[in-house]
Amino acid sequence: MNAVNPDGTPTARVRLPKKWAKEQFAQAELMMGANHIRVRCYDGITRMGRIKGKIKKRVWIREGDTLIVTPWSFQDEKCDIIYRYMPPQVDWLRRNRYI
């Protein structure tokens, strides 16, 4: 079942970061290999991101992609990548001023 807006455009379901789980937006900067990516988080810190096993096989992440990350509680310069946005979702986030 595909939902459609009144103007005929498809409805985009967009997952937002959960503040209570310390999730935040990030931009993929540099592929390091071995499931690691350098990401620039929206709090201004550049972290080493690790692709979680759950999305490792399902989603291909490239430089420039918008992501949701969770910083590690015990090592602030590292984080887990938990979600990647598709281009229509990024457009929706920009239109609604989330990023």
Provide an overview of this structure.
This protein has a single domain, classed as OB fold (Dihydrolipoamide Acetyltransferase, E2P). The chain has 2 helices and 5 strands; from the N terminus they run E-E-E-H-E-E-H. The chain has helices at 53-56, 87-95; strands at 24-33, 36-41, 46-51, 66-71, 78-84. It has a 5-stranded mixed β-barrel with strand order 1-2-3-5-4.
Quick overview of this protein structure:
This protein has helices at 53-56, 87-95, and strands at 24-33, 36-41, 46-51, 66-71, 78-84.
Walk me through the topology.
Layout: E1 24-33, E2 36-41, E3 46-51, H1 53-56, E4 66-71, E5 78-84, H2 87-95
Parallel strand pairs: 3-5
Antiparallel strand pairs: 1-2, 1-4, 2-3, 4-5
List keywords for this structure.
99 residues, OB fold (Dihydrolipoamide Acetyltransferase, E2P)
- Parts with pLDDT < 50 across at least 5 consecutive residues: none
Main beta-sheet annotation: 5 strands, mixed, barrel
How many alpha or pi helices? 2
The CATH superfamily title? Nucleic acid-binding proteins
What structural class do you assign from the helix and strand content?
A: mainly beta
- How many strands in all? 5
Oligomer: single chain
Q: End-to-end distance, in Å?
A: 29 Å
How many domains in all? 1
**Fraction of residues in H or I helices:** 10-25%
What coarse outline follows from CA principal-axis ratios? globular
Pattern of helices and strands: EEEHEEH
The proportion of residues in beta strands is 35-45%
Kindly report the spatial arrangement of strands forming the biggest sheet.
1-2-3-5-4
User: Roughly how many Å is the radius of gyration?
Assistant: 14 Å
State the CATH architecture. Beta Barrel
CATH class assignment: Mainly Beta
Q: Taking all residues together, what is the mean pLDDT?
A: 86
